[in-house]
Amino acid sequence: MIETDSSLLANFVNGNEKAFTTLANKWQHHILNFAYRYLGDEEKARDVVQEVLLRLYMSLKKFRGEAKFSTFLFRIITNCCIDTIKKNNHNSKEISFEDLKSDPDLEINIDERTVNPGVKNPADIAHWNDIGEKIRNALMELPESQRIVIIMKEYSHMKFAEIAEITETPESTVKSRMYKGLINLKKILSRNGIKDWSDIE
Amino acid sequence: MNCERIESLMVDFLYGEMSDEMSKEFIKHLSECDNCSRNFNELRQVRTLLGKIPEISDQSLNWQTPGENHRKKNNHLRWYFAAAAVLVLTALSLFVALNTSIQYRQGVIVLRFGTNAQPVLTEAEEKTTEPAISSGDVEKLIQYINYLEEKQNAERIIISDQLENLASTTMYELKKRDQIIQLLASYSNLNAEPASLQER
Ligand SMILES: [Zn+2]
Predict the structure, then answer these.
(1) Which chain B residues are closer than 8 Å to A155 by Cβ?
(2) Is B125's Cβ below 8 Å from some Cβ in A?
(3) Which of A120, A158, B1, B150 is the Cys-Cys partner for B5 at CB 3.0 to 4.6 Å?
């Protein structure tokens, strides 16, 4: 029998600790890979999984089902990722959940921007043989607000309305970030060596 | 629909979040407009690439609930945590009255006392190391709890969901004996602990 999130949740809230372990095992792969796409760092992504599950464990007993479980979970994931970026990023501009909400036109001009350090150094170029690595690195060059929307859509397959709810942003803003993000990715990838786009289908 | 409108609808169509009727208009425009058609094609190509990001394995991850961890390892510890819970809850209720803030930030508990206070407890490190707790330590904690309760005239503490949540978080993070003691100490400095307790 496949247990649904809601039945596991109900069991956990009623005192069944094992239900949480099942829930954790069910979601940890997705959380890990979501964070990996957002943070671009495997080790940090692993830390985020632990932190997300801990926060989830601590807060689930309060969960009253007023939001969808996935909405609740992805808020926690997003917050943990943002905290991780802040923690590792003392000198650069701090971002916050508020930024994701209130910065509709955080757009960079990719063509004029200087190359992102740490992405184009020789050691990294070796990894770039792999197209997957190229796109992953390109994703890391996007502004946070565009990256998160792309990951939620492409990796977590959420509806725009749900992304809007999680990020507390109007749906129209979510869509425009999605559009700008994809356009920017295309520019970054063209700059970083994908020349022949006709092959890609 | 004009080009501007089409552009604003591209992601809707790309991800199948468009009504059939609108989709027809959208497709019609694309068939008549090279510019929009080219733009849309680019988006599709980027989408294809996004699906190629490799996944990493979660095999080495192994979640254990905080409760499971503690119960299995040490019975003493269970008592200790129970005592710590009461302590934290009692202390919290007083902290609130004393204009004290407690923040939980990613594995770190920050306590602030008064308006200009510095954080007393900054980091809960070495999460994996369990403290060695002596019966004396637990006794001291319980004495202190009793003292706090007396001071409050045995007024019952209302445990709100929020406090309960914070307390369990705190319990999990404050594994180290020294940190509990430090918490006690910083609290007692503020509240002029009676001499009798210090002597004991
Ligand atoms: Zn057009």
Answers:
(1) 53
(2) no
(3) B1
Q: Is B5 left (phi over 0), alpha (psi -120 to 50) or beta?
A: alpha
Give the CATH number of domain A5-92: 1.10.1740.10
DSSP annotation string for A71-87: HHHHHHHHHHHHHHHHH
ipTM confidence score: 0.78
Angle value at C-alpha A58, between B74 and A67, nearest 5 degrees: 155
Distance (Å, whole) CA B174 – CA A189 = 46
Domain A122-200 CATH assignment equals 1.10.10.10: yes
The owner of tokens 């004009």 is B2
Q: Scanning the structure block, which residue is given the tokens 């705190």?
A: B170
Q: Where are the domains of chain A?
A: 5-92, 122-200
Q: What is the pLDDT of residues B65-119, one digit of tens each?
A: 665 444 344 444 555 556 666 666 666 555 544 444 444 333 333 334 333 333 3
pTM for this prediction: 0.61
- Residue of B50, B54, B65 lying closest to A20 (CB–CB): B65
Contact flag A175-B68 (C-beta cutoff 8 Å)? no
**To which H or E segment does residue A165 belong?**
helix A160-167
